[in-house]
Design goal:
The complex is a heterodimer of chains A (about 210) and B (about 475). The relative contact order of chain A is 0.14. Chain A is mainly α. Chain B is mostly helical. The chains are: A mainly alpha (about 210), B mainly alpha (about 475). The interface between A and B is large, with 41 and 51 residues.
């Protein structure tokens, strides 16, 4: 197996067992950076705008901006270190490992020839499934955000496995959507905690 | 006429509201833009023009013409409602600029979904509608609305992620079949078989499931009652009558392109989602005591009926389209009326609201009419549409589905009537002084009501012809 894909699998799996929000964000950032490293050889020579945009998307936005945006909020809030993105028990851990196996088995039916392409699809499918496992287990908005961003990252990996490349305009629009989504996640993370303590303070009639 | 103006005009003006020159005129800008865009949508529908624009990314066909003439007038009606609320309650001017900016951008993006000739362009535009709608759900100072807004954004993001995974898989399916991967709808329609092979089935299943979630179909429907309940009435109407149809257009395009190669998958998945949604909504309608949630569950029921109609395909599409149009106007009437009722009684609890026909006669009548249309009574278009779907279920041999459909719709009818009718006809519990309702405030609902009745009694030949063209294109004939 390609060492980068092995590292990516680690970045997907390890933060699930080390239940701290810092590790979750570190794992998320690492996923983006490793994906950028995987994509880099295929983008050579780096002379076109779409190639640069891909690197900005993977390395800068997914690798640095997304985790940093959430990190600054949690640090400002003084959030407790522990955060279980999936329940910390044997059942959940077995489920996570089983999900990886399902991803690898499923990829065999999608890509018949064994090789790097099959492994890339397997890791992407496993990433999507793990993202959904996090979403299904998560109660806190932060963990739900981690789940949603994991799914987004795995879709980007799945896109890397194909030959189809969108036009520059579409790529740019999708990147803008991702950045806006991260911005919204940051805003909700900063304000949701306060909203739990708010009641129905606005007069009922005063609404459009 | 270049249809791009329907996207650019509201979007640019929506952004322009941020400027200090336009902000004081936000109300006029909202209604004026909605009016101009509605007129342009009708002009676009009436005057045949070139099919493709902007390098093929934008397409003007029967489906886009139909849905543009549906969502833009509804947006205009909602704008007039907002303007009348502002006249009655000047305090609502606070934050109006933000509302108008987001709402106009929402309209531009919704039009982009309808006009898109590229599945990814439509996906991007639908994401934009989601991102601008999320802050609209938040009511300042109401914590629950922020939580509902977060749930809406989360579920929508997940739903649209599923759709994107589906599209990526469908692109790989094209590669596998030896075609150049493309998401241009006109090119996909020219190919005999797309979306087959090992990538095709999971891709299509995920795309339909994701869009079903965006439409509020079971099992991932829980965001919908929360968002519809907590959002201001005008925003709920935008979500239910405008965004729903934008998402539906994307589903129609996906079904149109990929049904020929995966007919059984499309039918079975849509039937399962549709029936599941109808059952879930019936149970929820029995359980709820919240007026806005009840209407929201009614909306889930309607989404289920539409999914079942789409699942059958041949022979039902004309009925489905009439049902879709009726559904949009019904939701707009009911949610705008619910806002008025809530503002009067200061509660959404159905047990606390009684004697509406005396306290708020106009709202009482609109709630009655909307409920009868919601339940599929004649002479409304929903009755006609439902009848066509039911007859197609029998003629296509789906007798089990037909039976379950009838049982669930009966339960829904009894449960809804049991809750709504005492609200309208019951003894007044609380009579408050309330400024008389102006014609301006009631005019959008009157207009929506007229359309509902016209759809049930007499469909003008030009509209019928447009519906037939859309049905033919969706059925591939």
């Amino acid at each position: 197996m390609n060492p980068l894909l092995l590292a990516l699998l680690g970045a997907l799996l390890i933060p699930l067992f080390v239940s701290t929000w810092r590790m979750s964000l570190f794992g998320l950032g690492l996923q983006g950076l490793i994906m950028a490293a995987i994509a880099y050889p295929g983008l050579q020579p780096m002379s076109s705008a779409p190639s640069w945009l891909s690197i900005i998307d993977l390395a800068l936005v997914r690798g640095i901006l997304a985790p940093l945006a959430l990190y600054t909020v949690l640090r400002a809030q003084g959030a407790p270190a522990r955060n279980d993105v999936i329940s910390a028990n044997l059942f959940s851990w077995t489920l996570a490992l089983g999900t990886i196996l399902v991803g690898f088995n499923f990829s065999e039916s999608l890509v018949s020839e064994a090789g790097e392409s099959q492994t890339l699809v397997a890791v992407a499918v496993a990433g999507v499934l793990l993202g959904f496992l996090v979403l299904a287990s998560a109660v806190s908005p932060f963990s739900q955000m981690i789940g949603a961003l994991r799914v987004e990252n795995s879709i980007a990996l799945l896109e890397l496995s194909g030959d189809h490349h969108s036009s520059f305009g579409l790529q740019l629009a999708m990147l803008a959507i991702l950045v806006a989504t991260i911005g919204f996640f940051r805003w909700y993370l900063a304000t949701l905690e306060a909203s739990e303590s708010e009641g129905e303070s606005a007069p009922d009639g005063l609404t459009l | 006429m270049n249809p791009l103006v329907l996207v650019m005009l509201p979007t640019l003006l929506g952004m322009g509201v941020a400027s200090p020159w336009l902000r004081p005129h936000a109300r006029v800008l909202l209604v004026g833009t909605a009016l101009v865009v509605s007129v342009l949508a009708f002009v676009h529908a009436l005057l045949p023009s070139s099919e493709l624009w902007l390098g093929g990314y934008v397409r003007s066909d029967a489906t886009s013409r139909l849905f543009l003439t549906l969502i833009n007038p509804i947006f205009l009606g909602i704008s007039v409602y907002v303007a009348s609320r502002l006249t009655a309650t000047p305090a609502l001017h606070v934050g109006l600029g933000r509302f108008v900016g987001l709402a106009l951008t929402f309209l531009g993006a919704s039009n982009a979904v309808v006009l898109g000739n590229h599945l990814l362009v439509q996906w991007i535009a639908l994401e934009v509608t989601t991102l601008v709608a999320a802050p609209l759900i938040v009511r300042p100072g109401v914590g629950r609305s922020r939580l509902a807004s977060w749930r809406y954004l989360l579920f929508s993001s997940v739903a649209l992620s599923l759709v994107l995974i589906g599209f990526v898989c469908l692109g790989r399916a094209m590669e596998g079949a030896g075609h150049e991967p493309s998401f241009f709808i006109d090119r996909l329609l020219e190919l005999d078989v797309v979306g087959a092979g090992p990538w095709g089935k999971p891709g299509l299943a995920l795309a339909i499931f994701g869009l079903g979630t965006k439409l509020g179909l079971a099992p991932m429907y829980t965001w919908l009652p929360d968002a519809y309940d907590e959002a201001p009435p005008a925003v709920t109407a935008l979500l239910g009558a405008v965004q729903f149809n934008a998402a539906l257009v994307l589903l129609l395009r996906v079904v149109q392109v990929y049904r020929p190669s995966n007919a059984a998958l499309v039918t079975n998945e849509l039937l399962t989602l549709g029936l599941g949604s109808m059952v879930v909504s019936a149970i929820s309608i029995i359980a709820t005591r919240n007026m806005k949630r009840l209407i929201a569950y009614g909306a889930i029921n309607h989404a289920g009926v539409i999914a079942i109609g789409l699942a059958i395909g041949k022979g039902t599409t004309y009925g489905v389209l009439i049902y879709v149009i009726s559904n949009a106007f019904i939701k707009a009437i009911l949610f705008l009326t619910a806002g008025k009722i809530k503002a009067h009684y200061r509660t959404k609890d159905t047990r606390e609201i009684s004697g509406l026909i005396k306290d708020l006669p106009y709202s009482g009548v609109f709630l009655l009419v909307g409920t009868l249309a919601l339940l599929g009574f004649p002479p409304f278009g929903s009755f006609f549409g439902e009848l066509l779907i039911l007859s197609a279920l029998v003629s296509s041999g789906h007798l089990y589905v037909f039976s379950l459909f009838c049982v669930v719709i009966t339960i829904t009818f009894v449960a809804t009537g049991r809750t709504i009718f005492p609200m309208i006809w019951g003894v007044s519990k609380k009579s408050q002084s309330w400024p008389e309702q102006t014609f301006l405030a009631g005019s959008p609902k009157i207009a929506f009501f007229v359309v509902l009745v016209v759809l049930g009694l007499y469909i003008p030949p030009s509209i019928s012809s447009l519906l037939e063209q859309v049905a033919a294109s969706l059925e591939g004939s």
